[in-house]
Amino acid sequence: MTGIYGAIASAGDWGLKHGCAVAYTDKGTGTGFDDLQNGLVDTLRGDVTTIAAAGANAQFVAPLSPEERAQYNAAFANRFAFKHAFSRQNPERDWGTDVLESIRFAFYVLNQKFPGANISKRNTVVIASSVSNGGGASLRAIEQDHEGLIDGAAVSEPNVNPKNFRPFTIAQGGSPPFTAQPTELIDYVTFQNAFEGCAVGSQTNAPLFFLAPPSAARCAALHADGLLASTTADAQAAEAQQKLNAFGFLPEQNFTEPLLWFAYVPQAIVVTYSNAYGEFKPTDNLCGISFAATDPTSNAVVPLAAAGEAVLFGASNGIPPTGGINLVNNSTGTEDRSSTPDQDLAAALCFRGLATGVDAGTGQTVAPADQSAHVRNGNRQVLATGDLHGVPAIIVEGRADDILPPNFVDRAYVGLNAQTEGGKSQLRYYEVTNANHLDDIAQFPGFDTTLIPLMNYYIEAMNLMYAHLRNGDALPPSQVVHTVPRGGTPGAAAPITLANVPPIQSNPGANAIVYSGFVLGIPQ
């Protein structure tokens, strides 16, 4: 997760209910902020105070000299810096190490609490587990675990970037085959961020479509830059959607695009992770984007209200827009997406260039090239090896995940693991239909009738791994789990029953997922 608090309701909830000790780590991505204008930060307890008063208890202080801070504030008033983006430590590089440190720390604390018990790896079952970022950190920890601390893992929708592997074919039912090749988060999310604002125009029947109406100006600007060939708004939207699906985003993910675009999900990830990978400071002004509160009417930068700042620790997820802090176009001093008619396509293409090293329109090397080199080098530092050393592991993923898409993440990792470990692999992959990255959107009309909770299968995966490690129960083979949407009237979906969420099968039959001969077979 972004920080330890997201893991409390997932791995923590399961662990405590099963009488386990639970160790958390925030992986350097928590909600720490620095109010650059006023020199205010949040402490480890969540209190807001001055940098001097917080001292070593500050969650995060932007790595700026007093002179740099003053000059930046004079040019860009009322800006904020967040730990994940601006720590200049590329925290994702150490996610696996952080998890291993938390396990060692847990053993230390347990032995302090129970003197003489000699609690250690020799007499304790250790399961690495979490969702999203935490899931990726768990897998990376096993890859780096040379002490044998971890006995198994059960993760859901992990944010993991598979390293270079031999391209293989993904054959999903009767869909056209897709060639899987290394495609890191910063690559696919910058592509998504460039085209999704236009593509939503093709999803007029999607739930909550009205929240993110099509941007004809974004489509027209993509056409003017030579990135779309079509000449009408409808055709451009359809072409943008086709480009996303041809790139590797699954058609099953399309209907969530309007809501995710409305919520700035691709844009938020692009800005934060680009700055984190490149180890930039706020003063580097990457692609002209900063963080600040904005007026809801004029969209201009304003100071964050004191009441909002006081609860930012709890209200923020550390990746703006969040907690009243938005993304800002520094050239206009206004909220970024509304700052230009084309939703600031220039910034989106700037970040795309940083990820690829070339201009999206001209194919020429981006300038400044050193910024792109920093981003791409930082991305290389976070790549997963796929070598789980024979440790049993379960990955659960929703096929409709438009944030960490299966083709680039889970399916790619399964292929990398198969190429790396071969027959000694104990990795299981359960792909769940009608499930996405964010269970909470199932509360909204239209999503309530079409989506089921992926968390149900995360809990089942934990139960399966626990039974495997404690009792030697066999792990079910990799498989597609076909769920049944609740149906009913949008906004008043039928009550969920066990029939909607069938269990993972010990004998999946035709639903088995198999990697063989550089082909990953995914039943429809």
Summary?
The chain is α/β, with parallel strands linked by helices and about 525 residues long. It has 17 helices and 19 strands.
Explained architecture:
By secondary structure, the chain is of the alpha/beta class. The chain has three domains: 33-90 and 265-379, no CATH class; 125-172 and 385-522, Rossmann fold, CATH 3.40.50; 185-262, no CATH class. It is built from 17 helices and 19 strands. Strands 1, 2, 3, 4, 9, 10, 11 and 12 form an eight-stranded antiparallel sheet that branches. The protein has a five-stranded parallel sheet with strand order 5-6-13-14-15, sandwiched between helices. A hairpin with a 4-residue loop joins strand 1 (33-35) and strand 2. Helix 7 (185-199) runs antiparallel to helix 9. The two termini are 29 Å apart.
Summarize the topology.
Blueprint: H1 4-17, E1 33-35, E2 40-42, E3 48-50, H2 51-54, H3 66-75, E4 79-82, H4 83-86, H5 95-113, E5 127-131, H6 133-144, E6 152-156, E7 168-172, E8 178-180, H7 185-199, H8 216-224, H9 233-247, H10 257-262, H11 265-278, E9 289-294, E10 301-302, H12 306-310, H13 312-315, E11 326-329, E12 334-335, H14 345-356, H15 369-380, E13 393-398, H16 410-421, E14 427-432, H17 455-471, E15 479-481, E16 488-489, E17 492-493, E18 514-516, E19 519-522
Parallel strand pairs: 5-6, 6-13, 7-19, 13-14, 14-15
Antiparallel strand pairs: 1-2, 1-4, 2-3, 4-9, 7-8, 9-10, 9-11, 11-12, 16-17, 18-19
